[in-house]
């Protein structure tokens, strides 16, 4: 006798079926609609395009140079800049090699630093920092002169007008046959320090100084300048001791003020190297010997 097979599902089968239906429903819920995904991705790409559009337009559209902004702390002018950069007429701003332009400007000994920048849509910005001349040095052949900055660096003057050059004092006592552009002159270090201190203490007085004289031989022997000579229109020779600049300048101003009141200018010589006094030699008369003895004050 065969046993009857029951067609009624068991409880465990019913539970399994319900579990599968729940999983299927959950998967359907988590699946992203392809259309929604397409709209989302399209929006992202559209925003990226909008943000990059100015850059694309800048690169794609050609911008001719219409303006050159130039600034400097010295005397170089736009004519010199254009000559050095050699920019072609109607040149595109994108075509300018800013690094090559900077290198060209830096080859001038008068230039300490330079910066060249593209400023869209049509401007090239050039900024230059120049060496400021403190002294001028006449070359050994006497045909021209070099300039010396506050660091003792020798450079060739470009664009400095005669009106400005005439107010830059000469420096004498150097072996000019050994001087060339790009040199640093160690023997001028003490002179430059003295000149800087004097300019701060008595700027109006220093403006009248026309010549500075150094003793290179003494510098080689001692490693410093023991004395510094200055020549002006009022005094043919003023001898300073290296150091105690302020005290010596006070003494000098008193002597010059007194000489003006007495109408004794110009003077032949003022020696300020002795700490407690100054030696003044007045201008010689026709009857006096130029080598006459000085008067101690």
Tell me about this structure.
With 297 residues, the chain is of the alpha+beta class. It is 37% helix and 22% strand. It has 9 helices and 13 strands. The strands form 3 sheets. Strands 7-8-9-10-11-12-13 form a 7-stranded mixed beta sheet, with helices on one face. Strands 1-3-2 form a 3-stranded mixed beta sheet. The protein is elongated, with a radius of gyration of 41 Å.
**Low-pLDDT sequence parts:** 1-6
Multimeric organization: single chain
User: Percent of residues in beta strands?
Assistant: 15-25%
Side by side, the strands of the main sheet go 7-8-9-10-11-12-13
Please state the structural category. Answer: alpha+beta
Helices and strands in order:
Blueprint (H helix, E strand, L loop, with lengths): L10 H20 L3 H27 L6 E6 L5 H8 L12 H9 L4 E9 L3 E8 L4 E4 L6 E4 L5 E2 L6 H4 L4 E3 L16 H13 L1 H4 L2 E5 L2 H7 L4 E6 L2 E7 L3 H17 L5 E5 L7 E4 L12 E2 L1
List the defining traits of the structure above.
single chain, 297 residues, 3-stranded mixed β-sheet, 13 strands, 37% helix, elongated, disordered N terminus
Q: In short, what is this structure?
A:
The protein has 297 residues and is of the alpha+beta class. It has helices spanning 11-30, 34-60, 78-85, 98-106, 162-165, 189-201, 203-206, 216-222, 245-261; strands spanning 67-72, 111-119, 123-130, 135-138, 145-148, 154-155, 170-172, 209-213, 227-232, 235-241, 267-271, 279-282, 295-296.
């Amino acid at each position: 006798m065969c046993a009857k097979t029951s067609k009624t599902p068991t409880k465990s089968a019913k539970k399994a079926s319900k579990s599968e239906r729940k999983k299927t429903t959950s998967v359907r819920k988590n699946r992203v609609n392809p259309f929604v995904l397409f709209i989302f991705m399209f929006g992202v790409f559209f925003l990226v395009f909008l943000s990059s559009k100015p850059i694309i337009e800048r690169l794609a559209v050609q911008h001719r140079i219409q303006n050159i902004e130039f600034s400097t702390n010295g005397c170089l002018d736009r004519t010199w800049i254009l000559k050095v950069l050699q920019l072609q007429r109607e040149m595109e701003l994108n075509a300018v090699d800013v690094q090559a332009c900077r290198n060209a400007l830096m080859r001038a000994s008068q230039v300490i630093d330079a910066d060249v920048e593209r400023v869209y849509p049509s401007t090239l910005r050039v900024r230059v920092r120049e060496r400021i001349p403190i002294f001028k040095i006449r070359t050994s052949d006497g045909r021209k002169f070099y300039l010396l900055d506050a660091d003792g660096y020798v450079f060739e003057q470009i664009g400095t007008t005669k009106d400005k050059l005439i107010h830059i004092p000469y420096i004498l006592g150097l072996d000019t046959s050994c001087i060339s552009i790009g040199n640093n002159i160690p023997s001028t270090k003490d002179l430059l320090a003295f000149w800087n201190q004097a300019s701060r203490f008595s700027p109006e007085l220093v403006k009248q100084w026309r010549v500075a004289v150094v003793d290179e031989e003494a510098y080689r022997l001692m490693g410093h300048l023991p004395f510094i000579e200055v020549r002006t229109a009022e005094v043919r020779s003023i001898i300073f001791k290296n150091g105690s600049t302020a005290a010596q300048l006070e003494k000098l101003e008193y002597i010059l003020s007194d000489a003006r009141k007495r109408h004794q200018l110009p003077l032949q010589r003022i020696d300020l190297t002795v700490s407690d006094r100054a030696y003044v030699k007045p201008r010689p008369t026709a009857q006096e010997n130029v080598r006459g003895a000085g008067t101690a004050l």
